[in-house]
């Protein structure tokens, strides 16, 4: 009989992502609040986290990751969130579109599209899954835009067409944001704008919109995950509201693991 505790079985490690992600801060708080002082939150990236997950999953080994929804991992693997009775990861989150000050005056068509951009977790999931299956983000987005012209027409309704004006969008290499940012970029490109995407860390993404070097991002997880940058730069950006409702973050494990709650890690 295997008498190892969960902690021993996973080396007291939670597999995290990039240190700038809000979920990393929430997880540090969780380790404190649940008195898991002998546990370590391992820094890495979204891609490294999903690679570790796949490796463990294929061997049916235990693993604990920082996870979020929408994400393709829930359709590829049988996973569950650990219950969070202390509510450290908050309630349901929404993803907001965040524009620089002055964008509405400088590029009203772009501002309108970003303001009207909104979709469901399932719609984002279609794009994410195709990218995960090896389709490039550009191609997956182009296909989605082509197949969802009614939805795209809602986003571009009454939006002024571009004439090659440059639009700078920033995003972090989280799978959810790779999908959303590329889809928005394709829509703006089709509308006549010259879209430049830059992949950055979470801090510079928020700072860039605040200092005006970035026109917008669609990766504001609120109210909890990005509460820090939101408060830090409040008043220096326009919050255009939710582009996706019903997001979630937390600690995630394969369903074959015999634990249900963060409290079970103690
Ligand atoms: N995430 C995905 C990000 C936001 C998008 C949950 C990994 C985070 O800052 O934690």
From TrEMBL:
Chief location category: membrane
A Pfam family recorded for this sequence: OpuAC
Keyword Zinc-finger: no
Localisation: Cell membrane
Domain of life: Bacteria
Keywords for this protein: Cell membrane, Membrane, Signal, Transport
Residues covered by the ABC-type glycine betaine transport system substrate-binding domain: 5-147, 166-266
Protein name per Swiss-Prot or TrEMBL: Glycine betaine/proline transport system substrate-binding protein
Organism of this sequence: Metabacillus malikii
